[in-house]
Amino acid sequence: MRDFRYIAVIFFVVVMAGFFYLMRDESAQEKREVMDFEEALRKQRKSDFGFSGPGADLHRILAMGKGPDKASLEAHTRLYFRYPPNSRPLSNSMNDLLNPRAIQNSKLPLIRQADRKKIQDGKMNPDDLPESDYSYRFWGPKNAIVGKETLIVYLEVYANGSNDRVPLTINRAMVKSDLKTGAKLLNPPLYNDSGANGDEYAGDNIWTFSWVPGAQTREYWGELLLEVEFTLGDQFYVESQIFFANPKTPGRFTGQFVEKVEAGSLYIEPEVSIDEPGHYIIEANLYHSATGEPLHWAYFNGDLTAGTQFIPLMFFGKIFHEKNRDGKFELRELRGYKNNVPFALADLGNIAKNPSLADTTAEPDKIMLADYPQKYVSKPYSLGDFSDAEYTSPEKTDAMNEY
Fold first, then answer.
1. What domain count does the chain have?
2. CATH number at residue 163
3. Cβ of 258: how many Cβ atoms within 10 Å?
4. What pTM does this model have?
């Protein structure tokens, strides 16, 4: 029976990780253990929701062929449940949450197109690729555009072992629709290194590509591909960058907000005007106004009806105490999307067992709202306005009772 309960706890944390996809009163020694464990989790995180969810680290442990020891599982579960799942601590290391829309790529080896074709044709083993003399990087302010927003993407190439950019000759640039619509050629992007159309400095070897959707048809919705053909010396290269676009929006942020303190936590509620009712995810970050320190990441996950309504985003009270911050706070990076998955969220367990069940539509799985471009500044608060209590819930009680 005890083994069964242990397996049940593992199953529970895996389910919690799946949910994110859709989305101190201890002794001094206990505090130190929790801090050490938290730091270890942060160092190994790849994508973080305040802390990496229990299932994410469990998955990595199992992938290494190791079973999680009970002490680690208990510490991880205890740490995770200090805060509610929809209101988590935010720190400067969590770049994917601080800059959720940015195209952030590391330098990658530049592979000659002739060698790439040999690999595709089975005439070369990827392990036999000659070492590249160059690396490249796409980057930009937004990896997703809504409506008639302009996509801006930059491309730069470096000689290996150097931070000096090298000059390129761009032969052609294309935007292609997603695979479900046949990767069709869409209206082409503009590109230059002459200080025009979003290019900041002429001749700095940073090529700027700009693109606005040419229509509001299905081909312009989904994970699109910017593909660039260029030459460097006497060699020909083709590299690409994925981005998301939807030419129509299911709703919009109105710019109106209300705020309140309830049950020891701060609630800031942005107003949305919804055209398409359905299941929505709305997210935002909270910062300390005086210092700019990131404090919270919070989200709303639920159904919205057509019309205007305020969305409750909870910023958990204990996090203000742990970071020792009072005064005014700034809500930034307000963003959201409508789920367009072809199944009820209640069926997520079945989808996890058989992913092919989810692939029953020719449409992308989300429709994005345009990000709210401004910040909202709260009233001033003292620490005494917020509770220092840990999160409590039946799920936390059930999980911790196993230990």
1. 3
2. 2.60.40
3. 11
4. 0.80
